[in-house]
Inverse folding.
């Protein structure tokens, strides 16, 4: 069709990205100047990123039967509503500031209780067998999304370094770069961000290292260039922009446990039966719905695959 | 500073309309352009109206210090409106929580209020604002008598700290924003304590008695 309907025309069709981004900044500034200064996303930040940021496409991606057939959350929401405190604690901060993160070159050190410790360049990781995994993501803040990740199973990486019998846990460390991450100036968490899994959780086929979403490489705000995704746990367990993976004997102390152990336990499996001390986990809001009307399902609906990992464990104590 | 009555009335009208801008924008977006509210419209509405509530609460507390320090006595006429806006935004804030977060499940809401300290203090603050809003009319001032009315409205010195505490306890990790509110509140309440102490000292001095050494040390 030659003549576009007005709602078909994206700002990016009319103006180069720099221009419309600056335009958005201006709108935001104007809004912030309003008497109460509570304008925020009203400036429609989201609208510029309708379908894609035009990032590098990923090739040779296999489909997976582990994907859900629920409709994926719109790209613009997946990439504009993020918790990535290294770039600020507001949901819009990562989208705004994460472009400062230099994701090439990038290396991931894999070490600890392994026979063959190694440092992987991101190019090597991208050559591992990639699959699309459409997973539900349930945030501890009681909202959820459906995200078409692209990644490889963590166990594929683990096999290359050969964990020893002493490897009982895996620790995941996020990049800490004060000059590229404005959020780390605030001591909101103990930097660098550390997350951890039990070895059997890490080796589970559902646990992936994601390098992309919606067919393209990860946008920085979603944890580029490589991040963990553990779909049956609250989102914060899935560390972003990973630089170090350590196989260890003792249970790692995670960033959120250090911040508030009574609110964020080591396991943090999605569980409607265990409330967060400050809000209920019974229901969730599927972004961008207005009402929080969905019943949250134990293990985020992945119980068939993972419940056996916790057989005999008191999940109320081991939250 | 002297101002004409018409200038004050005009300014009042401007403030009245400006104070409606945030809620008008939210309502407009909700009805005609939900996308503009971002990925989590409910959260945005709850946060925005919560911010507005706290800001109006602090604004009501700014009136007296400004009046006394700068002699802007015409400001006194703005306090009622600012206070009523605080209550109004508090109600919208509560409605957003009741509807969007809890889909009107009253049992869940009650449990939340009783069980979760940050909700308990926030809800208490709003409940305490209710009698102040109800007695905000001239007729109620006359009916209660100035002294009792003033005593009742000192509740704001409890309400505002509860409001800030509500925000403080709600935040997950980064306390910068609640700390800013707390600092402003401390300044505004500190001013009143200082003014009281100064007053008391003056009175003692006028009474002909020498102030106690203790009082002098504190002054």
């Amino acid at each position: 069709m030659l003549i576009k309907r007005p709602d078909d025309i994206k700002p990016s069709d009319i103006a180069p990205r720099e221009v419309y981004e600056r335009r958005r900044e201006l709108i935001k500034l104007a809004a912030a100047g309003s008497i109460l200064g509570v304008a925020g996303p009203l400036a429609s930040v989201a609208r510029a990123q309708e379908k894609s940021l035009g990032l590098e496409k990923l090739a040779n991606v296999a489909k997976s039967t582990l994907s859900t057939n629920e409709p994926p959350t719109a790209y613009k929401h997946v990439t504009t509503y993020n918790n990535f405190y290294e770039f600020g604690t507001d949901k819009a901060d990562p989208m705004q500031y994460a472009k400062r993160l230099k994701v090439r070159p990038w290396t991931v050190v894999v070490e600890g209780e392994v026979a063959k410790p190694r440092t992987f360049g991101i190019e090597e990781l991208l050559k591992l067998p990639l699959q699309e995994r459409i997973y539900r993501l349930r945030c501890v803040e009681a909202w959820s999304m459906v995200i078409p990740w692209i990644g490889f199973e963590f166990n594929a990486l683990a096999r290359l370094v050969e964990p020893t019998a002493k490897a009982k846990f895996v620790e995941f460390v996020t990049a800490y770069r004060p000059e590229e991450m404005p959020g780390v100036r605030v001591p909101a968490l103990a930097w660098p961000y550390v997350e951890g899994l039990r070895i059997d959780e890490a080796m589970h086929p559902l646990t992936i290292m994601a390098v992309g979403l919606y067919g393209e490489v990860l946008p920085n705000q979603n944890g580029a260039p490589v991040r963990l995704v553990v779909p049956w746990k609250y989102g914060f367990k899935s560390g972003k922009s990973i630089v170090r993976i350590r196989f260890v004997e003792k249970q790692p102390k995670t960033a959120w446990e250090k911040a508030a152990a009574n609110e964020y336990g080591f396991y943090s499996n999605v569980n409607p039966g265990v409330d967060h001390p400050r809000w209920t986990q019974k229901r969730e809001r599927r972004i961008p719905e207005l009402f929080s009307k969905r019943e949250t399902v134990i293990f985020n609906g992945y119980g068939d695959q993972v419940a056996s990992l916790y057989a005999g464990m008191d999940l109320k104590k081991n939250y | 500073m002297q101002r004409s009555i018409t200038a004050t009335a005009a300014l009042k009208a401007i403030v009245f309309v400006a104070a409606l801008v945030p809620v008008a924008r939210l309502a407009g977006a909700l009805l005609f352009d939900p996308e503009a509210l971002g990925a989590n419209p409910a959260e945005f509405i709850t946060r925005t109206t919560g911010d507005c509530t706290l800001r109006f609460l602090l604004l009501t507390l700014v009136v007296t210090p400004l009046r006394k320090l700068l002699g802007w006595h015409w400001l006194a006429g703005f306090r009622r409106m600012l206070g009523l806006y605080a209550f109004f935004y508090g109600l919208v804030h509560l409605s957003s929580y009741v509807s969007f977060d809890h889909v009107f499940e009253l049992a869940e809401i009650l449990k939340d209020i009783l069980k979760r300290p940050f909700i308990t203090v926030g809800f208490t603050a709003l409940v305490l604002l209710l009698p102040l809003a109800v007695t905000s009319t001239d007729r109620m001032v006359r009916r209660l008598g100035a002294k009792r009315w003033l005593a009742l409205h000192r509740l704001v010195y409890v309400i505002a700290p509860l409001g800030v505490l509500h925000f403080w306890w709600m935040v997950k990790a980064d306390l910068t924003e609640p700390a800013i509110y707390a600092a402003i509140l401390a300044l505004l309440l500190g001013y009143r304590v200082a003014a009281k102490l100064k007053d008391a000292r003056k009175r003692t001095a006028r009474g002909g008695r020498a102030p106690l050494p203790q009082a002098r040390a504190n002054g």
Q: What stands out?
A: The CA atoms of residues 1 and 72 of chain B lie 6 Å apart. Chain B has one domain: 5-199. Residues 213-219 of chain B have pLDDT under 50 and may be disordered.
